[in-house]
Amino acid sequence: MDTQMNVNASVPPFMEPPEKETIKSMVNIAAIIALVIGILELIMAIFTFGITIIFAIFSLLVYYESKQIIKLLDQRQYSQAKSKTLVWMIVGFIFSFIVVGILLLVAYLKFDDLISKSQFQMTAGMH
């Protein structure tokens, strides 16, 4: 039997709220789209010597930060993940195609349900 326990594993994985998986899916899809957009914008910037390099950098940052949001979700740091999602959703709306911003908006809206369910599970587990 493994004597080492995961500190963050207060809730078994099979009891995770479904909102968490929805958020992770939305963020992952947004990350992939942002990566593709970023690469395409980099290619356009190379050939046109244009301002698209700025858009490419921000699209790639959205990709990177989306992965950080997933890590925060896995660590059950939902409030931090929600605030980070808000920031990168706005950046996604401005610098990536609107689809990235919309996907992150859907994820952001799901956080309230996830946070309330996780708080309920924590208080129910204390009694």
Which structural traits does this protein have?
mainly alpha; 0% strand; disordered N terminus
Structure characterization notes:
This protein has one domain. α2 packs antiparallel against α3. Helices cover 80% and strands 0% of the residues. The protein is built from 4 helices and no strands. The protein starts with 17 loop residues before the first helix and ends with a helix. The N terminus is likely disordered. The chain is mainly α. The protein is elongated, with a radius of gyration of 17 Å.
- Listing every helix as H and every strand as E from the N terminus to the C terminus, the arrangement reads HHHH
Domain count: 1
Beta-strand percentage range: under 5%
Tell me the Rg in angstroms: 17 Å
Measured distance between first and last alpha carbons: 27 Å
Form type? elongated
Q: Ranges with pLDDT <50 over ≥5 residues? A: 1-9
Mean pLDDT level? 79
Query: Describe the biggest sheet?
Result: none
Number of strands: 0
Count of helices?
4
Helical residue percent band? over 70%
Helix and strand content put the structural class at: mainly alpha
